[in-house]
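Sample entry (163 residues):
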Amino acid sequence: MISQQQSTESNGPVLGHAGGGVKDGPAALWRVAVARHAYVVGIYLLGLAVVVQFLLAGLGIFWDAQFLQVWHAEVGAGVIFGLSLLLVPVGLLGRVPGSTLWLTAAVAGLVVVQSLLLAPYHLNATGLLRAVSGLHVVNALLIFWVVLRLVTRASNFRTAGNA
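Predicted structure, serialized as tokens:
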């Protein structure tokens, strides 16, 4: 039992005994491999979406406010939130380690925090309360760091021949 738990938490081969044994026929192993590959591709897309989100923020500040109000705040945040939530069940099907799935889900939570940090600004608060909105940028860096860790882990899945 301990060896099965350890193999599920490792970045070992997806076609190994990561929770199966006899029940893992060729069709089941194929589904796991496809789900793992979809997870890896999704993580790369999530990384791209976060970089584009920074670009949209810059365009909104320095070029046209439309990019900030519509594309950055609504579309970009929605894509990052939705994609991170979608990748959790895909990762479960692909037998992605639990710690990696928690990081994936954390991205959605950080996007919610990202919106909440802007509440004082949108409510026209003053003083120190309004300064809390400055943490929006720090939280964006935290999102970027978490997604960078996910991309690194997904790259490890690929180099191990798991995707």
